Amino acid sequence: QMVVKTFMDMDQDSEDEKQQYLPLALHLASEFFLRNPNKDVRLLVACCLADIFRIYAPEAPYTSHDKLKDIFLFITRQLKGLEDTKSPQFNRYFYLLENLAWVKSYNICFELEDCNEIFIQLFRTLFSVINNSHNQKVQMHMLDLMSSIIMEGDGVTQELLDSILINLIPAHKNLNKQAFDLAKVLLKRTVQTIEPCIANFFNQVLVLGKSSVSDLSEHVFDLIQELFAIDPHLLLSVMPQLEFKLKSNDGEERLAVVRLLAKLFGSKDSDLATQNRPLWQCFLGRFNDIHVPVRLESVKFASHCLMNHPDLAKDLTEYLKVRSHDPEEAIRHDVIVTIITAGKRDLSLVNDQLLGFVRERTLDKRWRVRKEAMMGLAQLYKKYCLHAEAGKDAAEKVSWIKDKLLHIYYQNSIDDKLLVEKIFAQYLVPHNLETERMKCLYYLYASLDPNAVKALNEMWKCQNMLRSHVRELLDLHKQPTSEANSAAMFGKLMTIASKYPGKAQDFVKKFNQVLGDDEKLRSQLELLISPTCSCKQADVCVREIARKLANPKQPTNPFLEMVKFLLERIAPVHIDSEAISALVKLMNKSIEGTADDEEEGVSPDTAIRAGLELLKVLSFTHPTSFHSAETYESLLQCLRMEDDKVAEAAIQIFRNTGHKIETDLPQIRS
């Protein structure tokens, strides 16, 4: 301890003392001290040696190369003590580090033939001891020590580079965050010097295929990603090598490079696409790759890219157009997911062309693709038109969706028809809107094109037909069993089954069996299809029936799904007497000029005509729901209007729905 204090207090100028203590300095480097079993003695000796290098600089008192190597490996081993900041000796370990960094003592090693061995030991030691209990100063001294070795040497060997890069690999990064940060700052600080060494490493592995040059060869893509995030300049010469790799003959290899570049081009702050146009163009070419997984990966990338780099949408549109006609179903499907995901994030990210691709795919030959396209458009419609989440212009941009989706009802496939019904009930006029539901329907009907109106009318007609089939089936259950009855029942079941996709026949037969055995179930179903059932009651009925048929042991039950489907189609989801009354009131407001017609984008005339047209259609499918004094009072107002078209529609509605006026409502009759 006395010796430590003596050397600590000595300056470079104290020539006499330097002369006097030279033998002591040489003595301290003897085996006895360097191999001493006592940890504290070794630490004190290391502190003395560090001071000796400081005092005698620039000429160290040790001339033998082997001795110097021994001393530096010995000092490096002592630095392991930095790990424990709570140790009583920590301040001495810190003094040792500070002294070495300040004097750049390790630079003496450049004269040694195997200096690399010392540097690798040093780097590994520092990266292994740094932890989150160290303060800024410890990290700063470590950086000074390592960066002076990198910047003042003749280049960095592969092994030394590995000792830095290994800390960037995901497995290591998660184990020691501080080592990762240290490596990051070190690379940033030495970028000019270390870039050629990094380029050489990647050149060996990527271009020449020599994976034996380093243990990190298998992690090259992870490393490129990390280095790019630290500082793109570290990869100046590596990017052209990646372009070469993108053209590799091996599909798997191209896939790996595409995955990597997707992350580099797509990440939020990356301006690689503008900085390196040739690489970007070459990457876009992979959208047309012969290998399916590569095309899939490219399409998946487009989604992030649209969200993070709207400026690149123009480049991507052309390539997504071709992919939306890809022979592979999965790729066409993913193109839709890509566009819709970006559109749901922000509609301005997808141009009309991209939405057009989704529109086209609603007529795809494969059901999975059609379904994705239809559901995607429905979600955009609900978000931007119904909830107007992005203002008037956005709503205008996707207002065509409602017509397009209803037109699909003209397709031959039952799957499509059923999906349109589902979309209508969940997205176009969501049944959970409660009070606003009829207003939504009223203005939707007024703004649809003629073909969409026809499709919607057809939809209600089909549901009404189905209701009457089920009603007739229930009537057959009330009659005594006979051969004729069974035959009639079988015919009915086949008719009902033909309205559903897949194995509907077996399910319908099974449901019919259950109906025959369970009287309570029959009465629930009777209630559901009775003309007076309200939407709220229907909701309860559907839940009750589903609960009865549910099997807790079978979480996914295709039979139950099928029955639910049947019930949803015949249940009054939107229309009951309350709904009709609300529609009529809305129409009266339009007649009086107190409605929000202009706000909803339709003229009062259009609203009144469409409203009456709508009521006329519903008077065929839901006549009983009209039967209330209030509704009829409002319709009488329409008869008093100048417009013949309006009056004519009102008479038609009275004709369809008024068979009980005579007996029940003398006031209206008169």
UniProtKB/TrEMBL annotation:
Matches recorded under Gene3D superfamilies: Leucine-rich Repeat Variant
Alphabetized SUPFAM superfamilies for the sequence: ARM repeat
InterPro entries in alphabetical order: ARM-like, ARM-type_fold, Pds5
GO CC annotation terms, alphabetical: chromatin; nucleus
Broad class of the protein's primary localization: nucleus
Record GO biological process: cell division; DNA repair; mitotic sister chromatid cohesion
Tagged with keyword Repeat: yes
Subcellular location: Nucleus
Nucleus keyword on record: yes
Top-rank lineage group of the source organism: Eukaryota
Keywords of this entry: Cell cycle, Cell division, Mitosis, Nucleus, Repeat
UniProt name for this protein: Sister chromatid cohesion protein PDS5 A
